[in-house]
Structure formats: structure tokens, C-alpha cells
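Lab notes, practical 5.
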Amino acid sequence: METSLHRQLKEYYAGDTSLQEVACAGYRIDAICRGRLIEIQHGSLAAIRDKIAALLVEHRVTVVKPIIATKKLVSLAKKNGPEVSRRLSPKRGKLLDLFEELVYFTRVFPHKRLTLEVALVEIEEYRYPGHGRRRRRREKDFQIADQLLVGIVETRKFRSLADLRRMLPRSLPTTFHTGHLAKEMQISRADAQRIAYCLRETGGIRMVGKEGNAILYRHARRAA
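Output from the prediction step:
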């Protein structure tokens, strides 16, 4: 079932309702705006990888990836019931979360006809009690009734490897490993390795050697 959040984002990016849910090249497209196909993907980018690759053969495509910056949890007494409580979720999304999805999308991005747009959003999520299926963790036993867009905090467009490499801090040494990346960006080593993987697979950086067990990288001379 389509959430209010998905519908609101379609309206934001397409405007005219007559250009929403359009059939194109054997696929269902969320919207078309000024001749560009728009696909809003809440789930994994892996799920639409082949679809987008096929559409890019003849069409310009914008993939909108919403990342939830803040979420207010609204508990309902039951499905379609009255509101019981509201609280702010401790989870916070950030722009760097894009790399968690990009690892599955490196065979598609970058492409001359593709724009990948990240939308940091604030939402309200409406929940009601589940059916006791999660017996060991009852506090998380719930069903999501709907998600509602409250606001768009920021959008960022990625069209090329140059756009992607701007996510890296300028303070990085010319030759660096993921330890440098983790320190300069104040992230975990695992997150740094994910970023390095995405940039390496898309051609943004190249391996130039090793320092102990750490792979050394440099910016590629030419970005696609």
C-alpha cells in the first residue's frame, strides 16, 4: 500500500497528478516531469537497479532516495484508532547514509542520463499494536499504518563522480587509507570502508598500494 510519504514526494517532484504512475518501456514509473522519468525509492536501490539500467538506455532518469533525518513516532490505540502518544525517534539519518545503498548501485551510477537525488526528510510515522508475532521483543511488536511527510530538510543531487567525491574532506592526504577517512570524517572504520568501496567501484578513487594491511588510495585523475 502506498504511504502518504510516497504520494507527497511524487507531488513535490512532479506536481501535475496526470503525470504520475505512468507506464514507460514496460515499467511503472512514479512520475514524469519535463520529459525526465522520476522514481522515488524508499527501499533498497538494489531493488530497482535493473529497472533503472534498462530505462537509461533511452531516457533521462532521476532517482529520489529519501533519507529520514528525523522521525516522530505516533502510537495509535488500534488500527484507525485514537492517538495514544508521540515521541521522537532517537535514530537520525544523514547524507552519508547514501553510501549504504550506493554499494548496490555502482553498476548503474554514474551515467550521463542519471541524476541521483537524496532528500533528507522529516516524517511522522503512525503505528498501532501488532499481533504478538514478536514474542521476545514485544516493545517492537507493531504495524505501520502510515508515514507522513512533515518537511524536506535538504536535497543533494549527484550526477557525476565529481559530485560524489565532494563528500570527502579536503583535509585527506593525497594518498590515504580508510583509517584516514574514518578519522577525518569522524565515522567508523566500517563506514569508511563502505565509502571507499563505492568510490573505487565507480572509478572515483584508485588503489595505489598498501601500508601494512591497509589499502592505499588516490583520487582518480579523471572522473566519469
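Observations recorded by the TA: Strands lie at 20-24, 27-33, 36-40, 61-76, 83-88, 114-129, 142-158, 205-211, 214-219. The mean pLDDT is 91.
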